[in-house]
Specification:
By secondary structure, the protein is of the alpha/beta class. It contains 16 helices and 18 strands. The mean pLDDT is 92. Bound molecules: 3-methyl-2-oxobutanoic acid and zinc ion. 3-methyl-2-oxobutanoic acid binds next to strand 6.
């Protein structure tokens, strides 16, 4: 009998801790639905004590998802745990994940608590959490740099108090695979009641070792891996879900366990997360990068044509490449449109939103003829913030001619008031951004501008990401259109909207 490896996805929580990656409630629900469809066992939906917005987002995910356990993160305080318990009340199956730091440096410098105080707080946290659920996960933060004797003591105590999963985080991505695997083995061997719990791991990628460390832990008895789509996460990110899952599946001869992930949903999930967060996937990224299955050299191409396994250890279609589904065309009606949205896990909040999106779908179908799921996701992303938008693009005229200076003529609305500006620039996008700044003088600094095609072909929509920074606050905006200058203007205004709308949120680990 092979063991089951639990896949715990934290894209919506640790992934959201990447600067500029914060997500709205609707965006979290869409990603959660995709994770559920994929067969993720546990979805960490957020940190409810961070803000009212995150509380509502975790609650919405808990109320929607049926096929996965929904988890919320809480510091080891009564207030955090109660807030998390309340956010999860509607979940069919809920887990509270509570944590406190255990490394000497964190206890002394960050918490200013003695090891005994930390231990006492951890036990109390489990007791508070058990008033809401029996499914309780405990993490000793910065376990990778904690003393093993203290880890054994605190973990034994939280198991006695009722914790059911022990998650061992390498919070700062410091450990080496062999060392981390040994740590898991040692904990399992030395903690007397360790057989009562599942051991989990949560590895950060600061040295590029998050996946290697997670897999080494699996070889030493960990049976839950915490990971994120595209490896999103704090700083250099977390272990990438797609890499962990495909390693375990491809090397069944090596690993003693299997996941229940339907891997054909991996690439659509990657595109969805990249589109929503505006974090592009590098072309050479394993599994989900555009070149992951492309063969450039003639020798490789020849080999693959003769016998695929000469150079390919996985099949592109098994991870969802080529799953681009032609779904609707210009003659499709509103009902077909609505049901496809539902299949994609999107429930627009009002008839007005449905009408707007349907109208924009028709406009797109006139330009593009073939509409794929990716196009629909981009349309929805554009429509979601519609209700709370402060700035909106109304019209844009661009003049570009060889040998002439490009010129943009722009009309936007600010809280419903129409404003106009013109500007030249080094290119059409530069001219457009300058025109926006003439009107809004936002005082922001452009940190990132990127354009990706959503589907293949020159009629594809371009998806633009703009990242702006102001007074230490980083926000992303994205826009999609078959005209990339229009997409760029939408993305820039989207980022400014986010700058205005997002309330400050607490960071769990600070
Ligand atoms: O990296 C970390 O230690 C965490 C914990 C909250 C699990 O994200
Ligand atoms: Zn983390």
């Amino acid at each position: 009998m092979r063991d089951h490896l639990i896949i715990f996805d934290t894209t919506l929580r640790d992934g959201e801790q990447s600067p500029g990656a914060s997500m709205t409630k609707e965006e979290k629900v869409r990603i959660a639905r995709q994770l559920e469809r994929m067969g993720v066992d546990v979805i960490e939906a957020g940190f409810p004590a961070a803000s009212n917005g995150d509380f509502e987002a975790v609650k919405a995910v808990a109320d929607t998802i049926k096929g996965s356990v929904v988890c919320g993160l809480a510091r080891a305080t009564e207030a955090d745990i109660r807030r998390t318990g309340e956010a999860l009340i509607g979940a069919e199956s809920a887990r509270i994940h509570t944590f406190i730091a255990t490394s000497p440096i964190h206890m002394k410098k960050k918490l200013r608590m003695s090891p005994e105080q930390v231990m006492e707080q951890a036990i109390k946290a489990i007791k508070w959490a058990s008033q809401y659920t029996d499914n309780i996960e405990f993490s000793p933060e910065d376990a990778g740099r904690s003393e093993v004797d203290f880890l054994c003591r605190i973990l034994e105590a939280v198991i006695d108090a009722g914790a059911t999963t022990l998650n061992i985080p390498d919070t700062v991505g410091y450990t080496m695979p062999e060392q981390f695997g040994n740590l898991i083995r040692t904990l399992r061997e030395r903690i007397p009641n360790s057989d009562k719990v599942i051991f989990s791991v949560h590895c950060h990628n600061d040295l590029g070792l998050a996946v290697a460390n997670s897999l080494s832990a699996v070889m030493n008895g960990a049976r839950q891996v915490e990971c994120t789509i595209n490896g999103l996460g704090e700083r250099a990110g977390n272990a990438a879900l797609e890499e962990v899952v495909m390693a375990v599946r491809t090397r069944q001869d090596f690993f003693p366990c299997d996941t229940r992930i339907d891997t054909t949903h991996i690439v659509p999930a990657s595109k969805l997360v990249s589109g929503i967060t505006g974090f592009p996937v590098q072309p050479n990224k394993a599994i989900v990068g555009a070149n992951a299955f492309a063969h450039e050299s003639g020798i490789h191409q020849d080999g693959v044509l003769k016998h695929r396994e000469t150079y390919e250890i996985m099949r592109a279609e098994d991870v969802g490449w080529g799953a681009n589904k032609l779904l609707l065309g210009k003659h499709s009606g509103r009902n077909a449109f609505r049901s496809r949205l539902l299949e994609l896990g999107v429930q627009l909040e009002s008839e007005e939103m449905l009408n707007n999106t349907f109208m924009r779908f028709k406009e797109l179908a006139d330009k593009k003829h073939e509409i794929f799921d990716e196009d629909l996701h981009a349309l929805i992303s554009d429509e979601m913030p519609f209700m709370q938008e402060r700035y909106r693009l109304l019209a844009l005229t661009i003049h570009c001619e060889t040998g002439e200076i490009p010129y943009a003529n722009l009309v936007i609305s600010e809280d419903g008031k129409e404003l106009r500006a013109e500007s030249d620039g080094s290119g059409p996008v530069d001219a457009t951004f300058r025109a926006i700044e003439k009107i809004l003088a936002s005082g922001t600094e452009l940190q990132l501008f990127s354009v990706n095609n959503i589907t293949s072909g020159t009629d594809s929509q371009g998806e633009v990401t703009v990242r702006l920074q102001k007074s230490g606050r980083i926000v992303n905006g994205h826009g999609a259109d078959t005209d990339i200058v229009v997409a760029s203007a939408k993305a820039y205004l989207g980022a400014l909207n986010n700058l205005h709308s997002k309330l400050d949120r607490a960071h769990p680990q600070v």
